[in-house]
Amino acid sequence: MPLPDGLAVRGSEVDLDPRHPAFVADPYPYYAALRDIGRVFRWRQLGHRCCARHEDVAALLRDRRFGRQVLHVATRAQLGWPEPEPHLAPFHEFERHSLLELEPPRHTRLRGFVNAAFLPRQVESAAAGVGRLAHELLDRVAAARSCDLVADYAAPLAVGVIADFLGVPRDLGPRLLAWSHDMVAIYQARRDRGIEDRAVAATVEFSACMRGLVAARRRAPADDLLSRLATAVDASGRGLDDGEIVTMGILLLNAGHEATVHALGNGVRAILAEAPGGLAAAAAEPAGHVEEMLRFDAPLHLFTRYALADVEAAGAAFRTGEVVGLLLGAANRDPERFPAPDLFDAGRTPNPHVAFGAGIHACVGAPLARLEMQVALRVLGERLPGLRLAEPPRVKDAWHFRGLEALRVAW
User: Fold this and answer.
1) pLDDT tens by residue, 116-175
2) Helices 366-383 & 127-141, crossing angle to 10 degrees?
3) Pairing relation of β-strands 323-327 and 48-51?
4) Is pLDDT at 255 greater than 90 in this prediction?
5) Phi, psi of 313 (to 5 degrees)
6) Interior CA angle at 24 toward 32 and 307, to 5°?
7) Are 274 and 389 in contact (CB under 8 A)?
8) Distance in angstroms (rounded) separating the CA atoms of residues 53 and 58
9) What's the pTM?
């Protein structure tokens, strides 16, 4: 078969601009070609090797010989890395406390402070509030007979839910969205100095806002996660410092809305265009539809890891400090693991997608995201059973944070 437009393969090296319009619009034919190359291939534009098959991606997500940081086992000099650029210092200081960027034992300690809050039985208590907010948002647009489902429903729902869960005022929502968008943009392919400067500015402003909220919770704790983080201690009697709480709060706000917004937008688009039974079936059986939404068009397509030693994995040798890119979106459409992977099948059992990662860095907020998406689907189907696409959806030029610029619908 001919390769998709813009993709060239030379041996085990891939030449593909991750911002190529056809790839951004629909990466799945490209992923099929990448899986055929072999278990490991080098993606020239990313500058490192990648895995695209489910078996390898799932295994490497759990492989403790790979981690999210490597400077605890090797120096910059040993790795041949330059010193960090000074203008990014505030962003690096923020990431220094991030669960996503840490390895045990510090990762274990920090995650222990939030694990209990995201247990399913704790999350289920938020269902009523999620439903109320979903109805409020649809009340605002119902008479208009059309809306942008991303801007008018998915985004304010996701921000409102995680803000309530943390204890952040909902009226900060627009500022939180702006800061979050600027911060996560730094992870995209081919970033420039403007993107970096905006990410740093957002980090500084977001951190200052969170420090104020943390100080207020220390003075007057409430029934929310931020208060628990500000007052909790571990088995040794040690609590979190302000830098750790600020980073954790920002991380939960960013991840808690970015991924959910994209997953809802991508998923509703797929249901309206692809799913048997459409939205009515999704509202009647939201759990299976949510799992298939996450598999079929995941919100995160790339997760990178460092080799923590000279190791062999996925049939290849990796040196200490070498990066491997795990293509979650490709793994979720692997026909070796998912029969008829390009069909939306809400009854797919089992459905071992890797949309939330796996291993010690699996998404801590996955139970809340699942609940939120299930409630959002149910309310949407009950309130707007005649929902249909009003125009072709616009995909964001962000590739590995896959989502929609807009999802115009009518009813």
Assistant:
1) 788 877 788 899 999 999 999 999 999 999 999 999 999 999 999 999 999 999 889 889
2) 40
3) parallel
4) no
5) -155, 150
6) 65
7) no
8) 9
9) 0.93
